[in-house]
Amino acid sequence: MTIPTHIIAGLIIGKATGNYTTSILAASLVDFDHVISYAKNGLMQKPEKLWETMTREEDLYGDQRGYLHNIFSFLALTIIAVLINTQVGIVFSLGYLSHLILDAMDKSDFWPLYPMKNFRIRGFIKYFSYQELIFAAILVVVFFLI
């Protein structure tokens, strides 16, 4: 899923928990993995190639959903956050989990055990598509209904 969809999920969690800042940050900052991949592969100085890479379903480099996009990092960071502040840690974990669930729902490669790539998930929603836009619109409706 794209950043706007993750932010909308963070907004829903923020509304439900009363902590928008933590939920939005946790739901969206997991995508820092993408930035690392773009920089490592020299895309930051090539805007056209960067845009092409950002908007395509396939991960040409196999590392865009890397170390932050796995269950091990999720568990480790959640435990640390809960130990620091239980309430904030719970909101953090919900935002982070929403990110992983949404990424598992789109058709791009998602390796929940990264760096082990022997288990891959591909969902049913086409990445950066009208399908995702409709799904995001449904999430916006959910936000206003809760």
- Structure class: mainly alpha
Unreliable sequence segments: none
Number of strands: 0
Order of helices and strands: HHHHHHH
Count of separate structural domains: 1
User: What characteristic shape results from the CA principal axes?
Assistant: globular
Percent in helix:
55-70%
Strand fraction equals under 5%
Secondary structure tally, helices: 7
The whole-number mean of residue pLDDT values reads 96
Largest sheet: none
What's a concise summary of this model?
The protein has 146 residues and is mainly alpha-helical.
Description:
This protein is mostly helical and 146 residues long. It has one domain (3-145). The protein is 63% helix and 0% strand. The chain is built from 7 helices and no strands. The chain has helices at residues 3-17, 20-28, 32-40, 47-55, 71-84, 86-105, 130-145. Helix 1 runs antiparallel to helix 2 (20-28), helix 1 runs antiparallel to helix 6 (86-105) and helix 1 (3-17) runs parallel beside helix 7 (130-145). The longest helix has 20 residues, at 86-105. The protein is globular and about 40 Å long.
Q: What tags apply to this protein structure?
A:
146 residues, mainly alpha, 63% helix, globular
Describe the secondary-structure layout.
Layout: H1 3-17, H2 20-28, H3 32-40, H4 47-55, H5 71-84, H6 86-105, H7 130-145
Helix pairs in contact: 1-2, 1-6, 1-7, 2-6, 5-6
